Amino acid sequence: MKFTKMQGNGNDFIIWDNREAKLSLDEIQKTAIKLCRRRLSLGADGLVVIDVPHNEDSSFSMRLFNRDGSESSFSGNAARCAARFACENKIAGAEMTFDTTGGTIKAIVEAPFVTLELGELDTKNIVLDAKFTYMDETLPVNYMHLGWPKSAPHCVVFLEKNDWRPMESLASFARAIQKDKELFPEGVNVNFLKILDHYAMEVYTYERGVDDFTLSCGSGSVAAAVAGWINGWCDSPVEVYNPGGTNIVIIEPKDNDKLLSVKLRGKASLIAEGSIFPEAL
Ligand SMILES: N[C@H](CCC[C@H](N)C(=O)O)C(=O)O
After folding, report:
1. Cys bridge to 80: 114, 206, 219, 267, which one at CB 3.0-4.6 A?
2. 100 forms bridges with which residues in the sheet?
3. What backbone phi and psi angles, to 5 degrees, belong to 35?
4. d(CA 198, CA 200)
5. What CATH number does domain 2-118+268-280 carry, 3.30.300.180, 2.60.40.10, 3.10.310.10, 3.40.50.1970?
6. How many angstroms separate the alpha carbon of residue 74 from the centre of ligand 1?
7. Which of 36, 87, 155, 217 is catalytic?
């Protein structure tokens, strides 16, 4: 079994081209769980599966399976990696359209950078002015779903710029939010956001399906930038600093700010390609 390893700002993925091998969904989910184990196997935050396109204008389709085998409908960093993989392997040109579980998107590859055109986000579906309380502490939160038509849930938690609490305490807060099955029946990615200035923010994402902080989350960066923009704290383009690198989020309002056209730009780096031995599985 041949693989490619890639990373987008430290969010690392194993890329599996399923166009010929045609593993079943069940086999793919089992493979994701086995291969993503750190130290025991290849190790990654998720497995990206490339397959034949579903639409005439698309060059390929992609799906992302988290390290616990669950599927996410939308991933910014994984989509950038998929686009660069497709370009390097001549599955698509440098400007391409491809299908994701969260809808058909466009990408432009200027290696190692990739810009994704993610389509339009309807602001009426974003929950503003919410709060979440855990262990006697209440923090302001916003939540939204990203991906069209199937979407991934994101919660943005606002921290003060000088809030330097340990990551373990943020992790406990994130897990408490994830446990709220009434608000988030499908689980949720929790993004902690600190506004640095009008064009820059710091974001740490505790990811659903990984059950840990990743070094970067592309969709989390989009959710945080959109929340910052909607609350009037930042303007586009927003530089989102994740521990693993920087994502740029470009937001263009349309129809009296009812719709936001969103682009995500960042690195998608090639690490290695090779064969997986049966013992890795
Ligand atoms: N890290 C990814 C998101 C993975 C999504 C996932 N954890 C979920 O929604 O289940 C990103 O760059 O957007």
Report:
1. 114
2. 62, 103
3. -70, -30
4. 6
5. 3.10.310.10
6. 6
7. 217
What pLDDT score was predicted for residue 148? Answer: 66
Task: Specify the residue for token string 């997986």.
Answer: 276
**H or E segment at 113?**
strand 113-122
- Pick out the chain residues at pLDDT < 50: none
What letter represents residue 138's amino acid?
A: T
Q: What are the sequence ranges of the domains in the chain?
A: 2-118+268-280, 121-265
Cα of 73 to ligand 1 centre, how many Å? 8
Nearest-CA residue for ligand 1 atom 1 is: 217
How many whole angstroms from 145 Cα to the centroid of ligand 1? 12
Q: Please say if 217 is a catalytic residue.
A: yes
Name residues contacting ligand 1 (CB within 6 A). Answer: 11, 66, 72, 75-78, 152, 189, 207-210, 214, 217-219
Find out whether 69 is annotated in a ligand binding site: no
pLDDT of the residue at 149 = 65
